[in-house]
């Protein structure tokens, strides 16, 4: 049932007509996906993740991404991998349940409707996590969605 509440699609950040990266999020993580240039050995790529900053580059070249993150992350739980020509960066949210409007500050922000849809999906994901025997995949909110971090006493940490 939880997979029904997983991100349905990736959000794309496009700059000057070129896709810079795609991303999605869960209650605990923000995932970034970057298509890598062909013909460059994977060992030359690097990704540096700090609590509030990310840098992606090919060694010996200026950074492809060099931005502050939208919100702080737990650096000891963040990692990156390369598979099938794509860099996948997993950022562990410092504040579980916080809805991010973009992975990086000031770039590729979700429009208000998409941000509300994300918050609703994360709220349902929280309900599913706390009540594993129930299926919330078809649930709907009649008005504004509450903040999943604070609704009814906040997210339980086990």
Features:
three-stranded antiparallel beta sheet, 158 residues, 12% helix, elongated, mainly beta, 8 strands
Q: Can you describe what's shown?
A:
This protein has 158 residues and is mainly beta. The protein contains one helix and eight strands, in the order E-E-E-E-E-E-E-E-H. The chain has one helix spanning 112-130, and strands at residues 11-15, 18-25, 29-35, 45-50, 53-58, 65-68, 79-83, 86-92. The strands form two sheets. The chain has a five-stranded antiparallel β-sheet, with no helix packed on it. The protein has a three-stranded antiparallel β-sheet with strand order 4-5-6, with no helix packed on it. A hairpin with a 2-residue loop joins strand 4 and strand 5 (53-58). It starts with 10 loop residues before the first strand and ends in a 28-residue tail after the last helix. The mean pLDDT is 89. GO terms for molecular function: unfolded protein binding. This is CS domain-containing protein.
Summarize the structure.
One of its GO terms (molecular function) is unfolded protein binding. It comes from Eleusine coracana subsp. coracana. The chain has 158 residues and is mainly beta.
């Amino acid at each position: 049932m939880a997979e029904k509440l997983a991100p349905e699609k990736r959000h794309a950040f496009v700059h000057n007509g070129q896709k810079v990266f795609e991303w999605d999020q869960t209650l605990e993580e923000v995932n970034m996906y970057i298509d890598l240039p062909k013909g460059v050995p994977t060992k030359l790529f690097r990704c540096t993740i700090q609590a509030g900053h990310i840098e992606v580059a090919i060694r010996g070249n200026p950074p492809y991404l060099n931005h502050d993150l939208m919100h702080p992350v737990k650096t000891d739980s963040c990692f990156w991998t390369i598979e099938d020509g794509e860099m996948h960066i997993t950022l562990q949210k410092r504040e579980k349940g916080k809805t991010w409007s973009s992975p990086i500050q000031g770039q590729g922000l979700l429009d208000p409707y998409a941000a509300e849809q994300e918050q609703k999906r994360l709220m349902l994901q929280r309900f599913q996590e706390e009540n594993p025997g129930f299926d919330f995949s078809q649930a709907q909110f009649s008005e504004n969605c509450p903040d999943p971090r604070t609704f009814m006493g906040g997210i339980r940490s086990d």
